[in-house]
Amino acid sequence: MLQQDEFDLKTGAGLIACPRCDALHVEEELPEGVTAQCIRCGHVLARPRAGAFSQIIALAVTTLVLVLAAVFFPFLEISRMGFGHGTSLFGVALAFADGLLAPLVLAVLVLVIGLPAARAGLLVYTLLPLARGRKPYAHVARAFRLSEQMKPWSMAEIFIIGTGVAMVKVGGLARISFGPAFWAFVALVFVSIASRSFMCATTIWDAIEDAGAPTDGREKIEGTPGA
Ligand SMILES: [Zn+2]
């Protein structure tokens, strides 16, 4: 662990680059509630908050429960002239499982359901020991890195907007009522927004490092302290 105002140009340890404009800053331990902003463009670099890890874990577990509800509860019901049909996403997936649309259904399930669930699982795996002040689990840096890489690909919000647009189109032809799974999806969108606002990747990386797991590439360069 480097001391205050120390940095290592070989590995980048102790330095922090602005993700928006690349300005390089020397990293400092921030007290809780203080925000670190880029000196050049004002982008927020770190914003540690008290109890944020427990809040993110709670939201990640909520995400897992909502994803289960979104898959297995009825998503919507279409009725016309007295005949109605309701289905869940799982039912849709089974109905198209061996047709031409199978790859599309698979992609939708992975992007809309699989990725948010996997991300929530990885966050719980990363943060659970850190929130209790214990030693992190094995491969914690890889787990958190993977969770950050999945972030742009979780598309629950886009799915809900797409469904809304499709419903407006179909609304003229038949009567549509939304099932519990639709509302679980809407809740999922709000939970993911809340989780993003609590989350500060810099603080989590710092906590992983402080707990003794190498994260800054020192483990990959021979002859440096973490190797
Ligand atoms: Zn900047």
Automatic annotation (TrEMBL):
<keyword id="KW-1133">Transmembrane helix</keyword>
<dbReference type="Pfam" id="PF04403">
    <property type="entry name" value="PqiA"/>
</dbReference>
<keyword id="KW-0472">Membrane</keyword>
<keyword id="KW-0812">Transmembrane</keyword>
<feature type="transmembrane region" description="Helical">
    <location>
        <begin position="152"/>
        <end position="170"/>
    </location>
</feature>
<protein>
    <submittedName>
        <fullName>Paraquat-inducible protein A</fullName>
    </submittedName>
</protein>
<dbReference type="InterPro" id="IPR007498">
    <property type="entry name" value="PqiA-like"/>
</dbReference>
<feature type="transmembrane region" description="Helical">
    <location>
        <begin position="176"/>
        <end position="194"/>
    </location>
</feature>
<feature type="transmembrane region" description="Helical">
    <location>
        <begin position="52"/>
        <end position="76"/>
    </location>
</feature>
